[in-house]
# Entry
Amino acid sequence: MKYEAVIGLEVHVQLKTKSKMFTRAPYYYGAPPNTLTDPVVLGLPGTLPVMNKEAVHKSAKVGLIFGSQIAEVCKWDRKNYFYPDSPKGYQISQFDQPICIGGAVEIELPGPSRNVMGEHRSVRLTRAHLEEDVGKLTHGLGESLVDFNRAGAPLLEIVTEPDMHTSEEAFAFLTSLRMHMVYAGISDCDMEKGQMRCDANVSIRPAGTMELGTKVEIKNLNTISGVRNGIDYEIKRQIRCIEEGEAIVQETRRWDAEKSRTTSMRSKEMSHDYRYFPDPDLMPVKLSKETVEGLRSELPEFPYDKQRRFLEQYSLPFTITSVLCPDRELSDYFEAAVAIYNNAKSIANLIANDLLRELAEAGSHGSLPLSECKVKPEHIAGLVKLIDEGIISKQIAQDVFIQMFKTGHAADVIVREQGLEQTSDTSELEALCRDIITNNPKPVEEFKGGNEKAINALKGQVMKRTQGKANPKVVDDVLKSLILN
# Structure
């Protein structure tokens, strides 16, 4: 029998705000343990929460990005549970009146090759609700340590419909979600820092049927590739259980990345287990239509919309748009250069190949940020213009770009100071070409015999003798003229 997997995701995104959800206490990654707390975070007697307005606005923006209905009124609820990472014994969250309802995330699936765009489709959202984060537990030999620095940070939980059927679709969903969040400045979504965390709900059913199977939740998925691997394992495990006559138990399982397997954690809690009730210390939130439209006006062009525009407006290949468009800063950099000098294809190639290569090599821990790069959009535009005007060859341009990257000097300054201008003087090149033709009879005869590519061997020697300064087109014309006349 063939089986089909049904997959839904619950993604927690930590919002990019200076302070926590219900207090002025700051939050940032990397502070010494338990130094970013206050009486509100710790739930000490006599304290009252005060809502973070920026977190509410950023949550509404997420809904606008994905076409969700933004609730006119949403309210706060207490989710009661007693874990060591929850200092109050409850979490302030949203239960029956979340801030965002419905919507969908556009995803891009892998194409048949790296050069071809894959299918685009949508994954429906059930809801997105705002809550406060909990602390972080670190388990060692015989002891567990708790750090409350993260407790109280604003967290948006995004819940999908069971719309996915493969781990590749889940991978594409998380990639798209993270890209949109970073684009709009909602979150940095660094999974290594806990800024985006994902739980996967997986079930299987006979292919062609509609009834859902027993759902298993997978936790401890700390990377996007870990989500893909965990889902793949769980699908195989559930199929194996059914084929061996075992029942699938509704439970929560932990992903063990080192052993590449899931293991049982606990039976799955239901909503009634948390005894939700409205928080008595927080008023419901009303978002006016004027506020929502004001937030909409602050949103950037979305990455897939930009990709479609780049393909049409600049006639760029998919291989280039797939590099530029996922990075808002890089795509803005590209358009700034094109606005100065209109040769989109050459500028895009220079950025996607040369600039990104140098940035990758310059960083001590990963790529050097574009904001710290000495090469500005006007430098890229100027270099491409020198090539187009025949002042320097593409070969010389490679060396000029490296010097631009190191010094921050403009291309024309480097070319002028080092005398790198291309030689287009036909009388000077003619003497050199005659000498090379005389000393290389074999490629000359091959060219005369109809082998057009044979002339490249002669051109290569001219370029070598001139150290790349000869104009390739002029060289080509001179060589052909001398050979054929």
Observations:
- Residues 74 and 285 are 5 Å apart (CA to CA).
- The chain has three domains: 3-294, 301-418, 426-484.
- The radius of gyration is 30 Å.
